[in-house]
Amino acid sequence: MKGARLLCLVFSGCLFAFPPPSSAKDPLPSWNDGAAKQAILSFVTTTTNPSNANFVPPEQRIATFDQDGTTWVEYPVYSQVIYCLDRVPVLVKTRPELAGVEPFKTVLSGDHSAIAKLSEQDLLKIVGATLSGMTVDEFESQVAAWLPTAKDGRWKAGLTLNLNFR
Hints:
The protein is mainly α. It has helices at residues 2-12, 35-48, 79-94, 104-109, 112-116, 120-131, 136-146.
């Protein structure tokens, strides 16, 4: 899913400007101690220490982590895809001719099993249609309005994204 991965990079990039850890306080207190947590802490310590060969200057730091410590929110689906699927009804209000056209018709049906079977090509059509024809400011405004209502389908928890796209 090259398109979805590119979208994920563009959409969910997060600037981390962590100072080097200076205290014993746990910076991830809600995380269980384990390999993922330790890998993230090690990564941050290494890349924020100016004396380390892998130091990354603050202006070059871009990273995202999901709940399992990976750099992609990939399960059950990228949150950016959730955003695009949620935008289909809004898009159809402005382009009603899409209501009877696949893959938009399937999304509008609300049938989660049918939506889960959409092909990569179908998802790219949805991504293209829901993310085009707007300015960056319009996009930021739409995401800011959507985000407080966005929920993960499995955990029913809110989604979080950094809205600093520039």
